[in-house]
Each structure stands twice: as C-alpha cells, then as structure tokens.
Records
---
Amino acid sequence: METTANNESRRDFMKQTAIAGAGLLLTNPADLFAWSTTPPNIKTRGYAAVDTSGKLQPWAFERRPVGDDDVLITIKYASICHSDIHQMKGHWGAQHYPQVPGHEIVGIVAEVGKNVTKFKVGDRAGVGCMVDSNPECESFKAGQEQYCPDTVFTYGYPEKSSPTGISQGGYATNIVVKEHFAVHIPRHISFQEAAPLLCAGITTYSPLMKFDLKKGDRVGVAGIGGLGHMAVKIAVSKGAEVYAFTTSPDKVDDILAFGAKEAIVVDDVKKLYAFGPKLDYMICTIPYAFDLAAYASVVKPFGTFTQVGMPERFEVTMNALGLAVSRVNFNASLIGGIPETQEVINYCADNKVHPKIQIIKAEQINAAWENVVNKKARYRYVIDAATF
Ligand SMILES: NC(=O)c1ccc[n+]([C@@H]2O[C@H](COP(=O)([O-])OP(=O)(O)OC[C@H]3O[C@@H](n4cnc5c(N)ncnc54)[C@H](OP(=O)(O)O)[C@@H]3O)[C@@H](O)[C@H]2O)c1
Ligand SMILES: [Zn+2]
C-alpha cells in the first residue's frame, strides 16, 4: 500500500517533470508525451454544505486521478447519517466548506490502479467512514484503522491528494479511494440496503461483538434511529433479549417488529429508574445532551454501557455518583475496522438483517436532514446517486 505522502511526492515529481518537459518542448517533442500522460482529475457532481446552516446545495468538484492503489467507484447510493448533519453544522468544530458529506457509500468499481488486487472493474463495492491511513501503524495492522492517528476520514479531513484540500464524501456521483478502504458488497443484498451498514451497521455491530454478546443476554438500545434500529436488529439476530429505549411513542410497533422484547417510551427519566438495573449491556446512540446516569441505571452492576452517539462538542455529562451506584463499565466506541466492516456486511447479507430504509432524490436531502433531526426518519434515508 502506498501512502498519501508517497502519492504526493510522486505527483510532485510528475509535476516537476512535466514543467521541465514544457521547458524543453521546443527542442524535445517526446516531452509533449510526458505532459499529456499526466492523468486528469476526475469530475464529480454532488451536494455540499457551504456553511453551518444545515442546507446543502449542488456542487461540481474534482477528485484526484486514480493512483496505483486506488479504485474509482461510480456511486449508486449514499445514505444519511446523523454524523453528516453534526459535522456540516459545525457541532464538532469549525469546518472547511464547500464540504460534501456522506460515509455510507455503495457503487460499482469503474477503474482500478495498477497495484490493486482486491477489486476489478465491475465489482460491487462500499466505502464507509475512512479513506486512507498509515499501513505501518499498529492499529492499522490490527484491522482497527479507525484508531490510527493518521487515518483520513471520508469527508472534511485534510487530504493533500484531494484537489479541494480536504476529503470529500459520498453525496456524489463517484469517489476515489485506496482499495484497502473499500469493501465488497455481496450480490445477495441490495445496494440500497447495504449502504447503511457502512456506518450504522458497523458502529453498532463492533461494540456488540466486543462485548462478546451471548444468546439470552439482556441488551438495551437507547435512541432508535439509524444506528439504534440496526443495533436492535443485530442484537436480536445474535439471540439477545432486546430492550429499546425511545422518546418516540410512534416507533413502538416498529421496534417490536424488529424483534425487541420490549420498547420503553422514555418521556421522563423516572421511567429509566423504574425499569431498574436489569441489563447486561446497553448501547446508547442518542445524538444530543442526555442524562447519562439515568440511562446507565438500567444496566446491572458490572455490566457494560457503550456510548456511540456523539453530541455537540462530543460532550457527554457524567454524574459520578450516578455512575458509581450503577457501577457500569462505561466506554465509547468509534465505528469499526475494515475487516469487521466486511464481516458485518457479510453477516447482514447472509442473515437478512436489513436496515429499514426510505429512498430519496438528491433534491430531498435538506428536507430529509430536518426529518432526521426531528426524529421522523424511518429509519435511514438512502439517496439515489443517479439524481445528483
Ligand atoms: N461512534 C461512532 O463511530 C458513530 C458513528 C456513526 C454515528 N454516530 C453518532 O451516533 C448518533 C446517532 O446517529 P444516527 O445516524 O443513528 O442518528 P438518528 O438516526 O437521528 O438516531 C438518533 C435517535 O436518537 C434519539 N434522539 C434524538 N434526539 C434525541 C434527544 N435530544 N434526546 C433523546 N433521544 C434523542 C431518537 O430516537 P427515538 O425517537 O427512539 O428517541 C433518534 O432517532 C449521532 O450522534 C452520530 O453522530 C457515531
Ligand atoms: Zn455515520
């Protein structure tokens, strides 16, 4: 695998060669050939944020040419994660604009670099939250690329190879990515249903597997949106007894249909204390400030509580006594590695663990984002990339 830095130095070398060649042009026609073989950037259309308003607009931009370790993917569908909204609105810090969100991406490989072995043209491929990293890093070698300090996340990260200077995401017609960061999409799951697995699927699957979930374990899920409904479905399919904590009474029927044993409508945190410390494990996807101690109170002493929701400024407020009396093992988890992303996609395809989705056109993205924030999504919006 070639690093971005290597790519960059090769590009600089090629640029210098080309400039030197242009100087010699009058005397050496062979240099004209060297100039003309510099691959052009790849044209792309997408939807970008230009400020913190949470409103996206159409934008034409360019991707880097396909490098030796890259694949070019023609995007078929990209789905909407609440992280897209948080980041574009600046909830997690100031952003560079224009910025194209989207890290649940599926499509067809259109071109491969000369070192690529994992894919060929025509393969079905997916891209999640990462597009590059440092292969020498221990986390990378362990298949936990998300914990490598050099990892480039799919949008908004400084990326020298990108013509816009930052990585640009999947609300677009195509993407160029290091082959390592693309995964295979099996034929027995639709593109539309595979897309949400690239973030919502892996982010819930990874901590559930880390917990070493066993048949009959009592698992809680808080916040039944894109991530939460996948957590319910995955935990149910692994044989857990699932308890879903929702603030939306009109989701109860769906939650029971997903296989949960019980849906608890949390209109008052007293409901959580009344439920009592019954669960072995809880995964919390709530994306805004909430009462952590109250949600942790439903877990048995020495059980585990994993936070995956990422509120504004990434802040979660702890109450030490509240956590102490629950004596939960608290952790927070970031997506999952590339091998595990392939694993969850295969698992969901094989076991028919499909997200519940709504397909939309590009022009509906802004309305869809409002619905996500207002808890009206049921449960993942998937954008048809043919409409960009
Ligand atoms: N850790 C990671 O690696 C990672 C990866 C992806 C996403 N995330 C984060 O995970 C969070 C969820 O993402 P998502 O795409 O699943 O979002 P989502 O589809 O909007 O689902 C979140 C759900 O949380 C509940 N909720 C929303 N606002 C709430 C509030 N103020 N108080 C209590 N409950 C509330 C709602 O469920 P009910 O209607 O059932 O109450 C909502 O549907 C976001 O913060 C996102 O950035 C983290
Ligand atoms: Zn996401």
---
Amino acid sequence: MQTKISPKRILANTLYPRYSAFVDKLNRNPLFVKFIKENEPTAPCFEERYEMYDHVMKHIGDGAVDYLEFGVWKGASIKYWAEHNAQSESRFAGFDTFTGLPEAWDFRPAGTFDVEGKIPEINDPRVQFVAGLFQQTLPQFLNGFSIRNRLVLHLDADLYSATLYVLARLHHLIVPGTILMFDEFGDVQHEFRAYNDYISSHMRECRVLCGSYQYYTLALEVVK
Ligand SMILES: C[S@@+](CC[C@H](N)C(=O)[O-])C[C@H]1O[C@@H](n2cnc3c(N)ncnc32)[C@H](O)[C@@H]1O
C-alpha cells in the first residue's frame, strides 16, 4: 500500500528522523526570555520563593483565600501559605498522588517525589488533602466546591500534562483577580508551555506580579 504521508514530510523526516527534546527546549527558550523581558520592568524577582509568596500575600491583602495546590509532596509550600494566612474563612486544599510523579519529567523518572502515600501532617482544620491523580480526583472535588474567597492556584506538578489539565479543568473558576503561581515556570517544555497553551486556547490574559530564582518561579494575576 502506498503511504499517504506527503513526500515533503517524508523527505524532512529522512533528513531529521528523530524528535529531539534538547532542540525543542532550545527552540522554546527565546519565548521564555521574550516573555520575561517584556514583564521584567514591573515584576520584582526575589532570591527565593518564600519571598515571592510574601509579596503575593501583600498584594492580595488580608482577606480570606481559597488556596488550591497541585503538587504537594511533603507539604512545604501549602504549610507556608496556611501559616501565613490568619483568616478563619480561608480554605486550603492540596492535591497529589503522594506516590510521586505519574510520568517522567525530563531526566527524573516516574515515581520521583514518592512519599509512599504519606499525607503531610498539618494541624489546621482549614487544610485538606486529596490523594490521587488530579485527572481522577479533581472532577469529584469540584462537584462539592464553589468559590467563596480570592482564588490562589499553586501549580507545582512539574509536568506539562498535569499543569494543563488543572488549568483547563478549573477554567470556570479562574476569573480576573485569580492568582496563578508556578513553581517551575522556567521549564519551557512543561509549566511554561502549559501556561501558554492554556492562555491561548482559553483566551485569557495575565499580568506578572513577581518571580524568584531568576524567574524560574513565577506569580501572575489573571486580568481577563
Ligand atoms: C515538586 S513536587 C511538589 C512540591 C511542593 N509543592 C513543595 O513545595 O514542597 C511535585 C508533585 O506533583 C505531584 N504530581 C505531578 N503530577 C500529578 C498528577 N497528575 N496527579 C497528582 N499528583 C501529581 C507529584 O506526585 C509530586 O509530589
């Protein structure tokens, strides 16, 4: 049977037969540099992410928050947010498999960040954890959830697939004023790509609030 793939494509494939993650990364890097250069003048960059969190907290003020964290691991970041928000009306939910990454992330194999199902111990009734794949747990969680406070989304799953899934699945809750924080925004093949794919496919606009670690970690506010 004759192949239906176009001859031009076959020729290109002969000359360049294998997908290269390295070339892909290299090719996306200018997009990241352009994005940061455009936003740098108004977005302070801190040494470390806890300073970035403090800046975001100052920006959103004293009100209660609905903080949803995707990628919890041992709970360091959700704990910090809960400890630094005194509002009794605030709610914090952390989602994770607690058995590690469901697929490889660059050179880190599936299973990295495995804590053998152990859920972090945080002595705060406002904090809850949801164990399992986001793709399996989020639909059910959303059945019983409506927004009461300023929404803060912390996207720290590292992976393109998981990050894009969460953003698209929460699209109806994401409104102007929603905060998006990415722990690995500088990973051009994963969180940065997921952010751009979400923004372009769902016609959203954000402004950068601040970053840390040379903008590898970033916080944005949805404006449209
Ligand atoms: C870098 S760790 C999170 C670190 C944590 N936020 C902190 O600051 O300490 C990334 C986590 O994302 C989780 N993860 C990635 N993709 C997931 C998915 N599709 N469903 C559930 N958890 C996922 C992994 O299990 C892993 O624990």
